[in-house]
TrEMBL record:
Pathway: Amino-acid biosynthesis; L-asparagine biosynthesis; L-asparagine from L-aspartate (L-Gln route): step 1/1. GO terms for molecular function: asparagine synthase (glutamine-hydrolyzing) activity; ATP binding. Belongs to the asparagine synthetase family. One of its GO terms (biological process) is asparagine biosynthetic process. This is asparagine synthase (glutamine-hydrolyzing). It is an enzyme of class 6 (ligase). Its EC number is 6.3.5.4. GO terms for cellular component: cytosol. It catalyses: L-aspartate + L-glutamine + ATP + H2O = L-asparagine + L-glutamate + AMP + diphosphate + H(+).
Length: 800
């Protein structure tokens, strides 16, 4: 098990020297050894960090090459049938110098070329460079258990690849984000393949290879593995026998290692089967480990102990509480690599596996997807009848229930829409609001209008394919890989062995799925191997008491105007923890334990859609608020009556809400949300209705920004009510301050001078002599650097 990286760059060959930094950004995934290969004739470099499990000697050093120096491989994973392939290769005349599966993969490529992958049964991601043919081949296992990310620019003749997305920042610091990643994440709670959070960085599809001819940079991406899709071959008792044999054989092969290995034991059906089969084929007591909780209603300790006693395992149980979660939170966030709504449970179990000295662990992941363990298998039968309601499904947007809001996805028929009906976090309308994107743009990014390919009928096998394609692939497998490798532990998954998958695919639906009882086929097959107490009970799942543990969490900095409302809903039990966690991760702001010291709402007439003096002031002010919020532990939200989108240089789109001139929607929003903020800043006196309507019952600090001619005349009754409800009035000039005090009398709240500002992104003029008389008037409210042209050093005005 390793972490691999590669750089091929004909445009900037010097980038190949960044391979060391790229490789070592994934040090946690391979602490045992490290290697680099630089090709002599082309700008190509491989880097590998090794976690050794087979042949722990230096004979397994990577990148590995053939004796003649033609072929070079960077290999991440395990081939469980490597011994069989090795014998076949030896018969063909190949010699071996190590006991590793890496050398088997390399010699298999030499012998069979691109056809070798069909012979592999395991989890892997690899790269092979053929020096003579000048080709690069990337490949990934049949189930996508091992990740492989890549960037290809054929015009520039560039290709970068790595096991983690974080490694790409070492090639190009400040790599731009994919502009739509938040849309996808808020819908799914994970990054759906092939997309990542980085622009033009994609995941190689499972069961595929990419072959690049480096002379021309022509690419061929092709599937090497196809699931069985023919008529059913197995039924009844024959299917039961085939399933039992395939699972038992898979577990036996997955236990092969030259380093300490164990089993995750949750107490559920899947992990209990894996434990039982592993104990049967191990001469010494196997090591099992499990998690327990201080809150008894989440504990499965009773069932874990039943299996541990029956199998005679050396069992380790670890108790987790809120204090451990809060202590490890910064490390959990660092481990994520890409945002994910899951993975915290995998973080802890892998952390403790490493703590007791294990290097590899078997897991029961995949059982629910293959054997019908999720509610979606029953719920899918309602999809077609609900879709006949058409536009009426949009009424779900008005419901306070999250699961009813998801009905709106069924206005579309795509596989993605049906999956999001079952598991979506936010619906299209909510995502549009939270990201500032149009509803059509959200639907296009999520591909909701694409034709269905997997879910054309109410077929449980198709639901299984959906759960494997979306949830298993993008959530469980990715989270398991990234969290296990963060702790230098390999997680092996017997249920995704090729032999088990093929038995499932060849079994008729009546045998495989029983809508009366989840996982009936699995239970029936292994009933004689498990105590009844294990399978004859309600499924609990591998869950944590997150709802309680996440109560103190918040973010600081620029946040969407809806976030304080989300926090209140979550605290009152009206929002699931998973939706709250998903939104926190989507902000890109620092997640912290403890609430912000201040929540500020800046409401402007216009900030970004014009270039007048007021708008320039608002832009610099919005930027200053954002920087001060990060520094002083505030939350700052910005909303505008006339704007549609912000300029991201000044304020992030995910923290902005523009109303596109819909005046009453703007006023209604302020009336509905103002109570969630303790500081209100009104950017123009023409928005006085917001302060006037809330003057009687608002407890927030209220500040009004004034500028020039709009306050040089007598205010209307509404404006006067708003002015007198303020705690402070800020104005940009002494003349405006005098006019305000003169016109409105001595009872007016304190009027403070708040100087106009230089735009922090002001371009350097070609001739700046005419600016000399203006210099003393400027003050700075933003912490952003000003251009390096000769003006007096600005002062920092912290907003208090």
């Amino acid at each position: 098990m390793c972490r691999i990286a590669g750089i091929i760059d004909f445009t900037q060959p010097e980038n190949c020297h960044r391979i060391t930094a790229m490789r070592d950004s994934m040090l946690h995934g391979g602490p045992d050894d490290a290697g680099i290969f630089h090709a002599p004739a082309v700008p190509l470099s491989f880097g590998v960090r090794r976690l050794s499990l087979l042949d722990l000697s230096l004979q397994g050093h990577q990148p590995m090459q053939t004796a003649d120096g033609r072929y070079h491989i960077a290999f991440n994973g395990e081939l469980y049938n490597f011994a069989d392939i090795r014998r076949e290769l030896q018969q063909a005349g190949h010699l071996f110098h190590s006991g590793t599966d890496t050398e088997v993969a390399l010699k298999a490529y030499v012998q069979w070329g691109l056809d070798c992958f069909q012979r592999f049964n395991g989890m892997f991601a690899l790269a092979v460079y053929d020096q003579t043919a000048n080709t690069l081949t990337l490949a990934r296992d049949h189930a996508g258990m091992k990740p492989l990310y890549y960037y290809v620019n054929a015009q520039q003749r560039q290709c970068y690849f790595g096991s983690e997305v974080r490694s790409f920042h070492q090639v190009r610091p400040g790599w731009p984000e994919d502009e739509h990643w938040r849309i996808r994440f808020l819908a799914y709670g994970h990054m759906p393949e092939p997309h990542t959070t980085l622009k033009d960085v994609y995941s190689l599809p499972k069961g595929h290879y990419m072959h690049i001819q480096l002379d021309s940079f022509q690419q061929l991406t092709q599937a090497w593995y196809q699931p069985y899709n023919g008529p059913a071959l197995l039924h009844g008792a024959a299917a039961n026998d085939a399933l039992h044999q395939s699972v038992e054989a898979a577990v036996k092969d997955h236990m092969i290692a030259d380093a300490p290995i164990g089993v995750f034991l949750s107490g559920g059906i899947d992990s209990s089967i894996i434990t039982t089969m592993a104990a049967r084929h191990h001469t010494q007591p196997i090591v099992t480990l499990s998690l327990d909780f201080e809150d008894a209603k989440y504990s499965e300790k009773e069932y874990q102990q039943i299996i541990a006693r029956q199998c005679g395992t050396t069992h380790h149980a670890f108790t987790i509480g809120e204090a451990q979660f809060q202590e490890q939170l910064p490390d959990i966030l660092m481990a994520l690599d890409q945002p994910s709504n899951d993975g915290i449970n995998a973080y802890f179990i892998c952390k403790y596996a490493r703590q007791i000295g294990l290097k590899a662990v078997l897991s029961g992941i995949g059982g629910d997807e293959l054997f019908g363990g999720y509610p979606s298998f029953k719920r899918q039968r309602w999809v077609k009848p609900l879709q006949t309601l058409g536009p009426l499904l949009g009424l779900g947007n008005w419901s306070a229930k999250d699961w009813i809001k998801r009905f709106s996805y069924l206005r579309h028929t795509s596989d993605a829409a049906q999956y999001l009906f079952h598991r979506g976090y936010f619906n299209s309308s909510q995502i549009s609001m939270l990201t500032g994107s149009s509803l059509q743009q959200v639907n296009d990014v999520l591909q909701l209008q694409a034709p269905a390919t997997m879910l054309r009928h109410n077929n449980p096998a198709q639901v299984s394919s959906m759960e494997q394609h979306f949830y298993l692939q993008n959530q469980l497998l990715r989270d398991t890989d990234v969290m296990s490798m963060w702790h230098s532990v390999e997680v092996r998954i017997p249920f995704l062995d090729k032999r088990v998958l093929q038995v499932c695919e060849q079994t008729d639906n009546r045998t495989r799925f029983n809508t009366g009882q989840p996982k009936q086929w699995l239970i029936q097959t292994f009933a004689n191997d498990l105590p009844e107490a294990i399978w004859n009970r309600k499924k609990m799942g591998f869950a944590f008491p997150f709802g309680k543990w996440m109560q103190p969490l918040s973010v600081r900095g620029a946040v969407h105007p809806e976030l304080p409302h989300f926090e209140k809903q979550f605290e009152n039990g009206h929002m699931q923890w998973s939706r709250y966690w998903a939104y926190l991760l989507s902000t890109g702001m620092p997640i912290q334990i403890g609430k912000p010291k201040r929540r500020m709402l800046f409401a402007s007439l216009r900030t970004f859609s014009a270039m007048g003096g007021i708008e320039k002031f608002n832009r610099a002010y919005a930027l200053a608020l954002q920087h001060n919020a990060l520094q002083h532990n505030w939350q700052v939200a910005h909303t505008s009556l006339y704007d549609a989108q912000p300029d991201a240089r000044y304020f992030p789109a995910q923290a902005f809400m523009g109303f596109r001139q819909h005046k009453w929607k703007f006023v209604w929003f302020f009336l509905r949300q103002h109570r969630h903020f303790d500081t209100h800043i009104l950017g123009h006196i023409n928005l006085s209705i917001c302060f006037a309507l809330t003057s009687r019952f608002s407890k927030a600090q209220r500040i009004m920004l004034t500028h020039g001619i709009e306050v040089w005349k007598a205010p209307s009754r509404l404006q006067k009510l708003a002015l007198y409800s303020c705690n402070a009035i800020w104005t940009v000039s002494n003349f405006s301050r005098r006019q305000l005090q003169h016109i409105n009398g001595p009872k007016l709240p304190v009027v403070q001078l708040f100087h106009n500002t230089l735009d922090p992104f002001l371009k350097k003029p070609q001739h700046n002599s005419n600016l000399v008389p203006c210099r003393p008037r400027f003050r700075r409210v933003t912490c952003s650097p000003l251009p390096a042209w000769p003006i007096p050093k600005p002062t920092k005005a912290t907003i208090k």
